[in-house]
Amino acid sequence: MFYRPEDGHGLPHNPFNAIVSPRPIAWVGTRGALGDNLAPYSFFNAVAYVPPQVMFASTSAKEDRDGTKDSVAQIRETGVFSISLVEYAARDRMNATSAAHPAGTDEFAVAGVAKAACDTIDCPRVADAPATLECKLTQLVALPGQANVAVFGEVTGVHIRDDCIVDGRFDVTTFQSLARGGYRDYSVVREVFQLTRPDDS
């Protein structure tokens, strides 16, 4: 099968998200004039080591947020955000925070997610997350298409839950990292293996 996205795929469901998967999930915490917000984004990844930088993308809008969603609106307002990792045990709470609530709704409270303060920025984070990245906005990039925007941030603080460090390494199998697939699919990291690059000594 081959298709041009502009012509359509002819399938019952769009295969694109399933092709580009699994994707890590950014559980984005923000604070603004209307209060605290928490929402998951699966277009997310690390993009640089030094200084450490990450990005996530928002691809839809709400009528009460002027062409974007709560997270991006509040990041525009404050210039900071947190990204917490999602463990398998938190899958239902994470899913609950994906609902489109009116602006000003605190999804931490709605989903029963424990909230903690960040150390380097004025922003909430998921208190019991395996890890959280505190981020200062570096760029908001408008992407082709309606309401598509990429958010880039520099990591200014890192929280790691103690039980996730094994023999001096951050071990994703200790919390079974959750990832997003296509459609309504998710996957869990329960096993890892190592490969050595040919040029590594």
Average per-residue pLDDT, rounded, comes to: 96
Number of domains: 1
Rounded radius of gyration (Å): 18 Å
Proportion in β-strands: 35-45%
| Largest sheet composition | 7 strands, antiparallel
Protein name: Flavin reductase
InterPro entries: Flavin_Rdtase-like_dom, Split_barrel_FMN-bd
Domain Flavin reductase like: 20-172
Organism: Jannaschia pagri
Tell me the layout of helices and strands:
Blueprint: H1 16-19, E1 23-24, E2 26-32, E3 35-41, E4 44-48, E5 53-58, H2 70-78, E6 80-84, H3 91-96, H4 107-111, E7 115-117, E8 124-126, E9 131-142, E10 149-160, E11 165-166, E12 169-170, E13 178-180, E14 186-188
What does this molecule look like?
- The protein has 201 residues and is mainly β.
- It has one domain (24-188): Pnp Oxidase, Chain A, CATH 2.30.110.10.
- It is 12% helix and 36% strand.
- The protein has 4 helices and 14 strands.
- The strands form 4 sheets. The chain has a 7-stranded antiparallel sheet, with helices on one face. Strands 1-13-14 form a 3-stranded antiparallel sheet, with no helix packed on it. The chain has a two-stranded antiparallel sheet with strand order 7-8.
- A hairpin with a 4-residue loop joins strand 4 and strand 5 (53-58).
- The mean pLDDT is 96.
Produce a short descriptive summary.
With about 200 residues, the chain is mainly β. It is about 10% helix and about 35% strand.
